[in-house]
């Protein structure tokens, strides 16, 4: 038995806060680590003690095991919980914690190392009799051998980084002629991300379900499973929606998959929480995919259907205590669905976003849980993963959970960086998902490409009316004008004109205050905005306006259907923008890795200009206009801020026809 009463959480954001809440409830002292970029994060304020371990970059902070261990020793912590990501599946870190006299809340370093390598893990699973996808996980990594093995497996095949995860170092190859180039790309990406270019090959299971089994084991060898989670709705191999139980699960299939997961855990003498991931095909056959030796992002859905606190069980296992559960004690009640709220612009290829959060309004209600690591006024850093929060809904049935989650998303407001809230509403509202039929191909089938949402004249009329009323209210406060005289002068009703921009060309809007509201002219369209008390009507229809906020010249507004940012621009700025321009600016804070052009270069639309690394991903910056590069304003590698000028292009005035 290992006793400890103080825990250092070697993580950040929502998972650090979630772990500390359970630890605090168990009477433990909580120690947080943070960077200067995270100084305003809620997990820092919640902890009993917080220690700064760096400025911002993960390599010099959350991924630096020596800094984390030094912080634990400084704080007098007795145990370390790694959360997920960062050092959570780093066998050397687990080993270093033990060597430093700290209890690592997780499996042994040996289990982590074995299951962290896809090739070694698959070999062990085959030995243990766990169903596996046919493939190749041999030591000979020569391109010729890999190509021959792929031909023997039969196309389509998946190339996977043996040390990888999260979709990096992974390529689907549908024909032999594409194998060599796909292998080169996968190996290069894996070497950069995981410092290893070892590959495995697998027969591609097309459009399966991604179903994972939550397992737990204590020091006495008692190993059980807590049912399954369906994580099929993914974008580029990154999970978007998770739910428990799986919509197509049967008791017989659950027992079979659960037994295979328990066998996998026992094969590596597992301790604590783990997840065994499977691919489930349409015929009910399932195949081992990988094992995650940590707590999963999606663990709340399991907690909501089992009533168990998985972090508390982790702590019990790490202390050497019995789980206090047998398999027959586990019962699943109702249904739970989780979505991940990301700081990303879905209309711009899901480009990660950074910047200040002007307003964060989480939802509440029956069956709703919010795991968040943000607060109003906080800065979203480009150094870290763009996930902001997780929204989870529980109901007695899948339909009730789904209705509650959609309603919760409609009531969720984040003003500042663009977020994927509206995309999540669309995903959950889609007929294929609502019927439980979605597989791993769901998003690529229905949301690729994802077209930018249309900004209508009614949207602009609403924004113009809200900006106008904010201006009038500010004037009234300064000049002490009675409310009933707002918008009026000795010459009668006042008129106003403004130029607005909402992701497209600037639009001129004209307004006229009347006794019955505001008349708004947007191009040839005329709208009527009437605001009486708490009721706001546009063209006679009541608007579902949840929140709105002016931040400088930016108006943020959230309805139940969408979040929209509208910017008021000066007339000359609007004219310049409408005429087009060749200024390419950094879309976010980050590290500029590469510049691909020089002054005098000719570029076309789509030409790569630069590569920016931000939020753990590399992003190509492409030319949006055709022309000639007149200026390169930065050097690489270098840190840049959102909005910094990167490349100036002298845009072609007119499309030129080629000659021969």
Automatic annotation (TrEMBL):
Pfam families: Biotin_carb_C, Biotin_carb_N, Biotin_lipoyl, CPSase_L_D2. Residues 3-448 form the Biotin carboxylation domain. It comes from Pseudophaeobacter arcticus. Its cofactor is biotin. Residues 570-650 form the Lipoyl-binding domain. This is Geranyl-CoA carboxylase subunit apha. Signal peptide: none annotated. Transmembrane segments: none annotated. Residues 122-319 form the ATP-grasp domain. Keywords: ATP-binding, Biotin, Ligase, Nucleotide-binding.
């Amino acid at each position: 038995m290992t006793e400890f009463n103080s825990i250092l959480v070697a993580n950040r954001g929502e998972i650090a806060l979630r772990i500390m809440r359970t630890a605090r409830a168990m009477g433990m002292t909580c120690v947080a680590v943070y960077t200067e970029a995270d100084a305003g994060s809620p997990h820092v304020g919640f902890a009993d003690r917080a220690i700064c371990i760096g400025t911002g970059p993960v390599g010099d902070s959350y991924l630096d095991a020596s800094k984390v261990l030094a912080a634990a020793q400084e704080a007098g912590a007795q145990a370390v919980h790694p959360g997920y990501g960062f050092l959570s599946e780093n066998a050397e870190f687990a080993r270093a914690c033990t060597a430093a006299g700290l209890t690592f809340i997780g499996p042994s370093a040996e289990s982590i190392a074995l299951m962290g390598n896809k090739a070694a893990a698959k070999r062990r699973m085959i030995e243990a009799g766990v169903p596996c996808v046919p493939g190749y996980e041999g030591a000979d990594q020569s391109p010729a051998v890999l190509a021959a093995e792929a031909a023997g497996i039969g196309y389509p095949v998946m190339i996977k980084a043996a040390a990888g995860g999260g979709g990096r170092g992974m390529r689907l190859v549908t024909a032999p002629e594409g194998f060599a180039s796909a292998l080169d790309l996968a190996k290069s990406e894996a070497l950069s991300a995981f410092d290893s270019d070892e590959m495995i090959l697998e027969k591609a299971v097309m459009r399966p379900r991604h179903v994972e089994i939550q397992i737990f084991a204590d020091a006495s060898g008692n190993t059980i499973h807590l049912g399954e989670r369906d994580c099929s709705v993914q974008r580029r191999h990154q999970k978007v929606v998770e739910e428990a139980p799986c919509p197509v699960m049967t008791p017989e299939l659950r027992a079979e998959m659960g037994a295979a997961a328990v066998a996998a855990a026992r094969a590596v003498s597992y301790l604590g929480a783990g997840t065994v991931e499977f691919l489930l095909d349409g015929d009910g056959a399932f195949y081992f995919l990988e094992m995650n030796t940590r707590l999963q992002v999606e663990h709340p859905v399991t907690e909501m259907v089992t009533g168990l606190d998985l972090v508390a069980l982790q702590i019990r296992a790490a202390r050497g205590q019995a789980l206090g559960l047998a398999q027959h004690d586990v019962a699943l009640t109702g249904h739970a669905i989780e979505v991940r709220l990301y700081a990303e612009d879905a209309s711009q290829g899901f480009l990660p976003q950074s910047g200040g959060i002007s307003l964060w309004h989480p939802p509440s209600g029956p069956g709703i849980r919010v795991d968040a690591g943000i607060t109003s006024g906080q800065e979203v850093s480009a150094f870290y993963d763009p996930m902001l929060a997780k929204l989870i809904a529980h109901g007695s049935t899948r339909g009730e959970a789904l209705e509650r989650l959609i309603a919760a998303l409609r009531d969720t407001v984040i003003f500042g960086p663009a977020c994927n809230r509206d995309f999540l509403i669309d995903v959950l509202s889609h007929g294929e998902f609502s019927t439980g039929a979605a597989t791993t191909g769901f998003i690529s089938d229905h949301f690729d490409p994802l077209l930018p949402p249309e900004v209508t004249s009614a949207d602009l009329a609403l924004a113009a009316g809200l900006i106008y009323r904010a201006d009038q209210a500010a004037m009234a406060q300064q000049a002490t004008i009675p409310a009933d005289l707002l918008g009026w002068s000795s010459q009668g009703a006042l008129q106003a004109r403004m130029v607005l921009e909402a992701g497209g060309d600037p639009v001129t809007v004209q307004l006229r205050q009347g006794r019955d509201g505001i008349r708004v002219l947007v191009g040839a369209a005329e709208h009527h905005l009437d605001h009486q008390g708490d009721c706001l009507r546009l063209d006679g229809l009541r608007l579902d306006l949840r929140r709105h906020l002016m931040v400088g010249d930016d108006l943020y507004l959230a309805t139940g259907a969408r979040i929209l940012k509208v910017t008021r621009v000066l007339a000359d700025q609007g004219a310049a923008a409408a005429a087009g321009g060749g200024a390419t600016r950094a879309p976010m804070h980050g590290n500029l890795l590469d510049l691909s052009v020089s002054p005098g270069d000719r570029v076309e639309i789509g030409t790569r200009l630069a590569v920016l690394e931000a939020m753990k991903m590399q992003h190509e910056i492409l030319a949006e206009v055709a022309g000639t590069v007149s200026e390169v304003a930065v050097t690489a590698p270098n840190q840049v801020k959102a909005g910094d000028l990167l490349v100036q292009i002298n845009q072609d005035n007119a499309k030129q026809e080629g000659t021969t």
